[in-house]
Amino acid sequence: MAELARFEEFGYRYPEAADAALRAISFELAGGVTLIGGPSGSGKTTLLRSLNGLVPHFHGGQAWGRASILGADLRTTSTRLLARAVSMVFQEPESQFVLATVRREVAFGPENLGLPPLEIAQRVDCSLETIGIPELAERRIATLSGGQRQRVALAAALAMRPRLLLLDEPTSQLDDSGADSLRLACQGLAAQGLAVVIAEHRPWRVDMPGCHQLELEQGSLASPRVHRSGPPALPARRGLATGAVVWELNDLAVGHAEPVGTGIYLAGREGEVVCLTGPNGSGKTTLLRTTAGLLRPLSGALFRRPGRCAYLPQEPGGILHQATLLDEVRQTIRWLQLDCQPGPILEEFELSSLADSDPRDLSTGQRQRAALAAVLVGRPEMVFLDEPTRGADPNSRALLLKVLDRLTAQGSAVLVATSDTQFAHQIGDRVMELAGGHLRESSEQAA
Amino acid sequence: MNPRALAVWVAAVLLLSLGSEDPVYRVLTLGAAVVVLAVRRRHEVRLRPALLAVGAAAALTILFNFLLSHTGQNIVVALPGWLPALGGPLTVEGAVYGFDIALGLAACIVAGITLSLVAEPHQLVDSLPAALSRTGAAVGASLTLVPRLGHSFVAVREAQQMRGWRPRGLRSWTAVLVPSVLTTIEGSVLMAEAMEARAFGSGPRSALATSTWRPSDLLTASAAGGAIVAFVLALVLGQIPSWQPYPTLLLPALNWWPAACCLALFAPVLARG
Known about the structure:
The complex is a heterodimer. By secondary structure, chain A is an alpha/beta fold.
């Protein structure tokens, strides 16, 4: 099989960074699927960026060693030229969209290749079909859920018909069906001789026979870990909370203009974790936001006991604006006039060593933990978390579980909206599925 | 709506609102711009934020002219001369002229935002000649930043409120504005990175679709084009009476010729469908 990429002692440092993000990396890529593992901040995204030239050409900084992509020298070939054969789906797909509708967004790449309109249309339809979202073709991107946007980004990458496809946490917001479609698409591409490189914290979701592995640790290649066929075992909760009802939904209809859920009955008790799962676009975020008091219900009754609500939005980076992570946690303490110190929550999320870092310089996974620390400091009576495991490595998931255990032991009522069903079943005392506009107990749990 | 037809209409609004200082024509032009925006906007577009912004810009214009012109015979109040810039008589004429300028400014802004709130960014890109397609794509991408900033502002405000933030004076808004702007800037950098990674600028672009002309677009373009030609002719032939509130405030004169040009700007409403 022809060699698609070769790295020899390749290293890279971002501008103004003290440490190198990649150190003496050597590997070869032929066809097939390669999974890149490693904890948050280990250099996975940087390695993907170097495979299409964004590192060093777009980001600047200093690169050393040798690297060639499709026979071209990485250090002298621009990203836009490499992009004709190398496609990438970014970790935050919502930021990569250029145009307003799904069809035009997917067509943007092929248009840049100067293809005839008929071929562009064929590629758009084919890639939307492959990812399983042909019905979204005419939708506006602003109206899509996080998971649906991730699928659109994948379709846009496939429409380029690349020889090398780079996927950065491609399943972080996908439901199981979306992850299955992605795995099948990758298998199909690999069978055609293409190379697919995936950085993924949940490798079992995209694992397939013959898959290669690279493991990164602090910017260096390490021995690949054997990844399991499922998430690392965490002690499942399954408590039967008997505390007082903290919030309750009675015959609720939720949505913006049109209802996405009707006839919803649900309650959260002291010391209980309720998880909301469901397919992408089913209305999990809308229901969570309504319960938290950020959206008005369309009809029905919503009771929420007076008390502090801690809320983590789906894009948590937006709330971080202080110069250091320590100041960010102190800000919440000051605003809420809490009687506590920032140290313990930073320790709980293993962020003490990053306390003086600018939150916006952190990796996506670290930022997620930083935002969690900023909103969960103290003892909130109610906790509402939207996709809290997005970009989280197994260690971060375990840390979150510990924090939620502490909070529930202190009497907090927790509601989590997540497309990560395995995590939901690990942490949830009850797991509810929102699908087709109706809420029911998850069949897996019911069984 | 065909973006080229819309562009001709926008050009007509700009010409008519800036080509004469007569407030009657400016009122008609602004009225046409607001009605067309309200009727032809994309169904998901909310008018209130845009109109509030235009209203704020107009109010500031009136205020500045009232405070800074110091010209005219009808004095409302005289501020002490030692006040820098503000000292001197504040006049009715100053306020009226400020109102007139605000009308023109508002018409221009409404016309500009009509272009982005009626047509999709990709329609604007498609309507450009091939030689400008790359510039057009970059402009199309930049048009998405305004709604992104709005989305980011709402999301950050909600999240900060849940962390205990409460609006207390102007300074407190930095906790919302700073992360909103930072997030939008970060989003712009990511978008630029993604455009680079999607081969933008690697060679000549093509387009999935090109813009088409319907009878209603032809009617809009003809009416707006006709208004441009007629208004320029009226200017050349001296058919547009000049108007100035200084030094004495007089009612503006009305001439049917430029007024008819202004009324032609309502064509996109009649040509709907």
